[in-house]
Amino acid sequence: MSASNFDSVSFDSASQAQSILQTARSLFYDRALVQLDGQYVGAVAAITSKRQSEAQAQELNYNEIFMRDNVPVMIFLLLEGKSEIVRHFLDTCLKLQSNQFQTLGIFPTSFVESDGGLVADYGQRAIGRVSSVDASLWWPILAHIYVQRTGDRAWASQPNVQRGIQQFLHLILHPWFRDAPTLHVPDGAFMIDRSLDVWGAPLEIQVLLYGALLSAAKLIQLDLSEKGVCGDSAVRLHSPSDAFTQQQIHQFTYALAWVKRLRSYLLKHYWVNIKTVQVLRQRPTEQYGDEITNEYNIQTESIPHWLQYWLGDRGGYLLGNIRTGRPDFRFFMLGNCLGAMFDVISPKQQQALFQLIWHNQSSLIAQMPLRICHPPLEDTDWRHKTGFDRKNLPWCYHNGGHWPCLLWFLGVAILRHQRHHPQVASGHEPWGTSMLQSSYELLLQRLPRQKWAEYFDGPTGLWAGQQTRYYQTWTITGLLLIHHFLKVNPADVDIMNLPTVKELSDIKIFGVPSVPIPGTGWSS
Ligand code: GLC
Questions:
Q1: pLDDT by residue (tens digit) across 22-44?
Q2: Could you give the CA distance from residue 512 to residue 523 in angstroms, rounded to a whole number?
Q3: CA of 28 to the centre of ligand 1 (A)
Q4: Are 404 and 262 found together in one domain?
Q5: Are residue 120 and residue 172 in the same domain, yes or no?
Q6: Does residue 131 sit in the same domain as residue 233?
Q7: How far apart are CA 211 and CA 459, in angstroms?
Q8: Of 235, 314, 326, 504, which is most buried by a Cβ count within 10 Å?
Q9: Do residues 157 and 181 share a domain?
Q10: How many Å lie between the centroid of ligand 1 and the Cα of residue 109?
């Protein structure tokens, strides 16, 4: 059944679509965007409705400017040519980068103006007191996208920007108690910001880490080129003398070595398809030493049988988390879309991923694209792993709910794949533009009628979320973005391009440190 067949209301008038898009634009520009020091700086998470008091909004912090909710906002503003707002947003987050000893270098989850000053949340004010690690990873990615789109290299070379990048990298590239290149985080450290058994090495954090390291390395390289420390061999390079530049070179080299290890690790441990599952099921356990096949001591019984239907014979995806003895086979939509969009997975694997989404569209799209995570935690798992979280009941909210703000990520992933790998994407695949088109139509049909809800509940996503906010900004910008990429200019998906490992590896730097780089098994 195609996604659009689920809804009996037909959607056929172009003028009707235009008027919905116009409503979305007005909501965004007139109600969601807010100013700081007389200039636009970003958007609140949800627009306060006339009936809801400002006090209620504050209590729930939806009146704050969240880093992750502003990712689609900033991409949309760049497409609209409003880059000065994006620069203001990046500069404001940079000013708020933590300078406290224990959290030095992290970027805020959200901020809000209060009594003429800025109040930021690094997790110390959040429900459950969890810090959003994704916010810190998104900042360098957005900074790279801004520079790439506008060509504003002068912004990237400013000392405060380079210092911010240095502090950010310092957070990640340091000794730890483990050797894996993944970032270890507590439960709820990303878009899924409440307990859902997503502690350890959840996929979304790892693919964002991949993007953040590449972006940070590129931003450092821009400054090194400016200083004449790196370039092509034809240029006469000079040796860096100051400690700051030496640290930049060290971090550039280290980040690049890390990113290479991270990609190999994700492909080895996270990628699943019909072949890898069968290999996994037959591996020996209780192995010790270097030359082993089952590093995380995973037992066959922890590989769920529903994977047989889920994968079919052509599907593949990145699983949710790798932990000793407890892999998480749940499918997480955003981590997978980012994995494709950032080219963590190969073009063939991207095709297998889209095939899997198409094959499981009655679960993942159903009446509201897209489901955030599948399958939900139920019964004892729900009780113990979420701590009886009533917002995350099975099929609700993060626990199997449907989030319209996710569709544009899938749109970029598919359209980028078709554009960059036409030889792999045959053009006749059912998951191609037709799946996106019917999903886009579902958003047009349902979002205005359901007041631009934040999320939808139930196995088909037919009901607005039990505790949903209405007039949620990323629901609104999500529709504007998928419309732009699908209908206005598909070539603009390249706005999300990251620097490639190859391009960064080809850069010649004068004075590369000759010391071994800890943890990477790599030295220059
Ligand atoms: C909820 C979501 C989170 C989002 C926030 C503001 O807490 O889980 O991902 O950033 O709302 O919209």
A1: 999 999 999 999 999 999 999 99
A2: 10
A3: 18
A4: no
A5: yes
A6: yes
A7: 32
A8: 504
A9: yes
A10: 10
Site of tokens 């109040």: 119
Both 79 and 152 in one domain: the answer is yes
* Joined tokens for residue 211: 């993007």
Task: Give the pLDDT confidence score for residue 192 in this predicted structure.
Answer: 98
Taking Cα atoms as reference points, which of 121, 132, 34, 60 lies closest to residue 469? 60
Full-model pTM: 0.94
Angle between helices 407-420 and 333-341 (to 10 degrees): 30
Q: Are residues 311 and 392 in the same domain?
A: no
Q: Is 429 in the pocket of ligand 1 (CB under 6 A)?
A: no
Q: Which residue would you say has higher pLDDT here, 238 or 371?
A: 371
Question: Would the CB of 191 count as within 6 Å of ligand 1?
Answer: yes
Tokens of 215: 């972006």
pLDDT in tens, 398-436: 999 999 999 999 999 999 999 999 887 776 677 788 999
- Residue 336's domain comprises 1-30+330-499
Report the amino acid identity of residue 381.
Answer: D
CB 121 near ligand 1, within 6 Å: no
Decide whether any atom of ligand 1 lies within 6 Å of the 452 Cβ: no
Distances (CA, A) of 408 to 4, 143, 415, 465: 17, 20, 10, 20
